[in-house]
């Protein structure tokens, strides 16, 4: 079994698959680092939706 870092913050099953959500993405990161990552994800998602909308026009 592979050892994973962080604490399990949520666990559930989808069909036969066990899903664990861990907090390892936050270990040794400042609030500013985390906010920068969230901003980047927001930008990527927004750009995706804009491109998709432009395909429909």
- Structural class, from helix and strand content? alpha+beta
Count helical runs. Answer: 1
Q: Spell out the helices and strands N to C.
A: EEH
Mean pLDDT over the residues: 92
Task: Provide the gyration radius in Å.
Answer: 17 Å
Largest sheet: 2 strands, antiparallel
Extended strand count: 2
Strand content: 15-25%
- What coarse outline follows from CA principal-axis ratios? flat
Low-confidence runs (pLDDT<50, min 5 residues)?
none
Q: Provide the spatial order of strands within the biggest beta sheet.
A: 1-2
What portion of residues is helical?
40-55%
Through-space gap between termini: 49 Å
List keywords for this structure.
57 residues, alpha+beta, single chain, 1 helix
Structure characterization notes:
The chain has 57 residues and is of the alpha+beta class. Helices cover 46% and strands 23% of the residues. It contains one helix and two strands. It has a two-stranded antiparallel sheet. The longest helix is centred in the C-terminal third of the chain and has 26 residues, at 31-56. It is flat and about 50 Å long.
Task: Map the helices and strands.
Layout: E1 8-14, E2 17-22, H1 31-56
Antiparallel strand pairs: 1-2
Summarize the structure.
The chain has 57 residues and is of the alpha+beta class.
